[in-house]
Amino acid sequence: IKYAGADTDSMLESPPHTFCRQISKQEFEEQRVTGSQGAIVELLEGIIHDKAMSIKDKKKKLKQ
Prior knowledge:
Layout: H1 8-13, H2 25-48, H3 55-63
Protein name: DEP domain-containing protein 1B
Organism: Clarias magur (Asian catfish)
């Protein structure tokens, strides 16, 4: 009797496991800041380039 996934050939075809690694507090802070800044820049650019939004609405959104 053979069970699905029990033979050695299927074990060789499975993707390798990846694990998280612990990072320092400083590295965490750097990632937090750069990630947040990138998201804010993307949001602001989206507002600026939105053709459907009026200039008045854009100014209002950018002031928030």
